[in-house]
Specification:
By secondary structure, the chain is an alpha+beta fold. Helices cover 19% and strands 15% of the residues. The strands form two sheets. The protein has a five-stranded antiparallel sheet. Strands 1-2 form a two-stranded antiparallel sheet.
Length: 178
């Protein structure tokens, strides 16, 4: 049980437990490591021309803040991916796959929802739960300690509002290529 769970439980306040298939984690995932909350800094060649310094700060030295609303539109994401059937989004630190979108909706619907909220917005079916956890306060993180964003449920269910810089990594076998 994490510190936040202890405090909330001790105050008689409810913990946020999100419905399945959401996999909950605890505060220990975000404990101090060699590079902030992660063992390693972000990759040097992030996809979509995402800024490495911004990514490193958000992924590893931050628990609450985000890239600015609409940041993803200032990157090459739309130019490179708009015609793609399905995109795998990788952890910017480790290169592990975290999300695959769109699933259960069209690319147009994924882009519309992302534009509407200002950040890439994923649904439960698009999360790779082997490597993603949601903490009791709603923070979405990788199992390796990368801050991703937050779960902000709406009328359609869980919505993971994720920083593009946190999921702009390259796959493990492709870290050095452009």
């Amino acid at each position: 049980m994490g510190i936040l769970d202890s405090i909330l439980g001790g105050l008689g306040l409810p913990r946020n437990n999100y419905p399945d298939p959401c996999v909950m984690g605890d505060e220990s995932i975000m404990s101090k490591k060699a590079h902030g909350t992660s063992e390693t800094p972000v990759q040097s060649n992030l996809r979509w021309n995402c800024d490495q310094k911004t990514a490193d700060n958000i992924c590893n030295f931050n628990r609450h803040y985000a890239e600015y609303r609409g940041y993803w539109e200032s990157t090459t994401f739309l130019e490179e991916e708009a015609a793609t059937a399905e995109i795998t989004f990788y952890d910017s630190n480790t290169g592990k796959p975290l999300f695959v979108a769109p699933r259960g909706r069209s690319m147009l619907d994924f882009i519309k929802e992302t534009k509407s909220h200002g950040w890439p917005s994923f649904r439960d079916s698009e999360v790779i739960w082997d490597d993603v956890r949601v903490l009791p306060g709603g923070e979405a993180v990788s199992t390796d300690g990368t801050h991703l964003g937050h779960n902000l449920p709406d009328a359609m269910g869980n919505r993971y509002c994720i920083n593009l810089v946190s999921v702009a990594g390259r796959p493990l076998d492709d870290k050095e290529s452009d």
